[in-house]
Amino acid sequence: MDSRIKILKSGRNKNMVENGTVMYYLQDENKRIQLEVLCMGMSLQAKQLKMSDLNTQVGVLAGIRGIKPLEMQNEEKAPAIFCMPEVLIFAGVSNKTLDEFLASYKRIGLAPIKLKATATPKNVEWTLYRLVRELAEECRQIEAAAARKNPNK
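The structure corresponding to this sequence follows.
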């Protein structure tokens, strides 16, 4: 079995808290504080992402060892001017904990974040920029399909 899959399945390394890591990019300070308090209450590590992380691999940001370095000359780099959307990325978080987190997030009344992902054996090798672009495109396709299905909304 690929070592990345073992790491993701175990969801642990010495840098992770008991239940995994929630990486996030938020601009609202109050929302950031509420998210971090929620993570603490669930024994999840909260990691704030920065614009300077855009060209870093998701697995590296998550603290996963053994991520094969990218050949950046083959990877599209984030443009100098890029409006980073809000995003949540879960690494090493079980399905049960993820469900509990999302229910708690909704229950405490935090504004929804459209772009969410879990670390997978494939996307841990992507840059944060690539993951955000992929998520934004998926979101756009879902919203377009919903608009076609319900044209009166």
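Confidence is low (pLDDT under 50) at residues 1-16.
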